Amino acid sequence: MDDLIESYGDLGSRLVFISDGATWIRNWVEDAFPSAISILDYFHAVAHLCEFADSYFTEKKAKRRWEENQKKLLLESKVRQVVKNIAKLAPENKLAKNLIAYYKANMHRMDYKEYKQMGCGIIGSGAIESAHRTVVQKRMKQSGQR
Asked: Which of 20, 32, 66, 88 is least surrounded, with the fewest CB atoms within 10 Å of its CB?
């Protein structure tokens, strides 16, 4: 992958990676392309948030209201506030602790307000994952394909 990307020349900060927060991907991007922009996929960040909320809240309206507030804060790049809100809500909850650790490890990759305003404007990998599913997987699973 490095050779393919490097074949385009020095892209600097025009090179953007969007990933799910896997440590090995984050480390590879930071080591191989230190001037690239690395974004934690917004939808993965929200999925982890919702998983915690599902386990914590018993009332659906309260859960939905809390989730929407946290999502807005994430889109405004207020990750520290979201971390504080989670810690205040459930200081001893294991999923809360895991979520806080996940957000802290990726905080520098969660400036969604800035990412939406810059040229690419993309904060999620959904379009790429959909293209992979429809173009690559579907096509290669047809009769006679290898």
From this structure: 88
